Amino acid sequence: MLASLKILVVDDNPTILRLLTRSLDKCGELITATDGADALMKVIELKPDLIISDYSMPVMDGRALFEKLQARKETKDIPFCFLASQKEIDEHLRMVVDGVEEYFVKPFFVTELAAQAHRITGRMNQARMERLGGRGAVTGHLSEMNLLDWMTSLEQGRKTCALILRHGGEECILYFIEGQVAHATYGTLAGDQAVFKVLTWTEGDWELDFSRTTSEHTTTMSTQGLMMEGLRLLDEANRDAAG
Known about the structure:
Elements: E1 6-10, H1 14-24, E2 29-33, H2 36-46, E3 50-54, H3 62-70, E4 80-85, H4 86-93, E5 100-106, H5 110-132, E6 137-141, H6 147-157, E7 161-167, E8 170-177, E9 180-186, E10 189-190, H7 192-198, E11 205-209, H8 223-242
Parallel strand pairs: 1-2, 1-3, 3-4, 4-5
Antiparallel strand pairs: 6-11, 7-8, 7-11, 8-9, 9-10
Helix pairs in contact: 1-5, 2-3, 5-6
């Protein structure tokens, strides 16, 4: 079982901190801190996989926290994201590049911030998968990495493997060859239609098996094409339902 990423979220504003944790709750196991000093102690004690910190905080601001972590061998490689205004980025953080994973620009829309964070954690999960590649199968939850996330990651990584999705007693198997979905099965469906049926699954489990492959080829589109067409069909269905 692939453990959830531990994400430390740091902000001195309780309202913003609650908003951040709500928007990031699908990305991993969340830890919170209310200032830089509190965050520093939690990093040393809990060793998070990712840190998202506000820049402007009393006592120890986000940059001071970042610099202290960069100075320690045990913490300098932890990916760090700043939450800051565009002015703060331009005037104080523009030269801070090495070790910074991302800048989240304030004010932000919750959906956009969540999407950015999801892309980051997706890349981190993909890196963990690569380190585990060749050791058989690993598993996790669709609430943390759904099919669209995996299709994007596996295409970018040009991976060859089987991705098995399970939800409510049902199962779908997608076979990737160098990042492209070559074959998919879901009940009596195969190929494109099997993929489209499960694109919306956000609950259930996934299993990634690097030892399984196939010689069958039932899909007619690239991985990108399957994602785009699947989202188009979903939008069409939503419009019909609303009408």
